[in-house]
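Internal tracking record. Fields below are filled automatically when a chain is submitted to the structure queue. Please do not edit lines marked as system-generated. If the sequence contains nonstandard residues, flag them in the REMARKS field before resubmitting.
Queue: standard
Priority: normal
Entity type: single polypeptide chain
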Amino acid sequence: MDTINQFLSEFDPLSSNSRNEFRQIFSLKTYKKGSVIAGYNQTKGKFFLIKEGITCSYLNDEKGKKVIRTLFLPMSVMASLKSIINQPNVNNVNVNFHCLTDCKILIADLDDFLNLVDKHHDISKLYIQILEKSYSELIRRITHLTTLEATERYLHLKKIAPSIENQIPQYQIASYLNITPIQLSRIRKKLSSK
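SYSTEM-GENERATED OUTPUT FOLLOWS
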């Protein structure tokens, strides 16, 4: 199953015409580990679909340290939520997107996607479902950060990305979990001794 079909299988079905037009707005691009895909200097809104690899959104804290907000695994949509909600413009991107591994990513101009939303009712429904899913993931992330202990957050991450420790460095995992690398090391040691 190709990436677009696999992605769309999670949502209400599209007509064959809509599916074809949706597919046509994407192009495949390969990025090396460490590449910045989009961010503060982006001049046009983009809509990304992760085919292979792990990416993240990050902000810089007051000391200039990168803090990972979100991890994007294969079949994830990656876009500035602010851009998607407010319509894209030059100053709308409020976060950087970065490759944590080598990646293959399908990219579409957000304007092209939003034109399809206006043109096709079923793609409009897809748009709503993508926004709902993004909102639900954001609420889940906030809930986990505010209610779960660090060990529970780590175990949840391992549940959704079992091999993540073989793919990205510990300090990046720790950043995503909002803990220090030393805390993560202690958690891993404690869990492995059980």
